[in-house]
Amino acid sequence: MNILLIREDITKLNVDAIVNAANKSLLGGGGVDGAIHRAGGPEILAECKKIGGCETGQAVITTAGNLPSKYVIHTVGPIWNGGTANEEALLKSCYIQSLKLAEENLLSSIAIPNISTGIYRFPKELAAKIAIKSAQSFKSQSITELRFVCFEEENFNLYAELLNQ
Ligand code: AR6
Questions:
Q1: Does the pLDDT at position 51 exceed 90?
Q2: pLDDT in tens, 113-151
Q3: How many Cβ atoms sit within 10 Å of the Cβ of residue 31?
Q4: By the 8 A CB rule, do 122 and 157 touch?
Q5: What is the spatial distance between Cα 66 and Cα 60, in angstroms, rounded to a whole number?
Q6: Is the pLDDT assigned to residue 14 strictly greater than 90?
Q7: How far is the CA of 148 from the centre of ligand 1 (A)?
Q8: Does the Cβ of 35 fall within 6 Å of ligand 1?
Q9: CATH 2.40.50.140 is held by the domain 2-163
Q10: Which of 17, 60, 111, 154 has its CA 20 to 30 A from that of 102?
């Protein structure tokens, strides 16, 4: 699995699946979740409603509606609460469960944003370390390309430094 780093709007990417940093209701929200539902249209929300919700650390897959990607994998990151509420393990689980879903659906390319580091306030450097470690430890059969998509310069610089080590 090739790991790439890009600074982009994830809704523009033509990959098999983009990952959404959703909430437990799966009914949309702000941040990257809002951007994905706005650009993807009502088909995504309709499928999310059918699924009915998702636990923190888990992931579900839907159509990508009008987006250039084929699927959206929605995962629910932990809300940072000082680090004593199992946040690190839950964030790791988001990455692993998303990759597992991609694998089960025989997808070959996936783009993942910086889950939990926006509205959910997870410390960015710790989140980047967990994301990279989870991806590097994942044994993949079908996925050949994973793009870490950073929207902000701070996250992009953190990932660049960690990936170059
Ligand atoms: N493309 C790529 N990354 C983006 C984009 C985009 N278009 N827009 C924002 N980001 P956040 P969370 C980055 O807040 O912290 C929602 O309301 C952003 O810069 O989207 O997991 C949900 O419904 C940040 O680095 O997600 C939940 O209620 C990263 O995406 C809650 O927010 C994640 O920030 C989830 O909070």
A1: yes
A2: 999 999 999 999 999 999 999 999 999 999 999 999 999
A3: 17
A4: no
A5: 18
A6: yes
A7: 13
A8: yes
A9: no
A10: 154
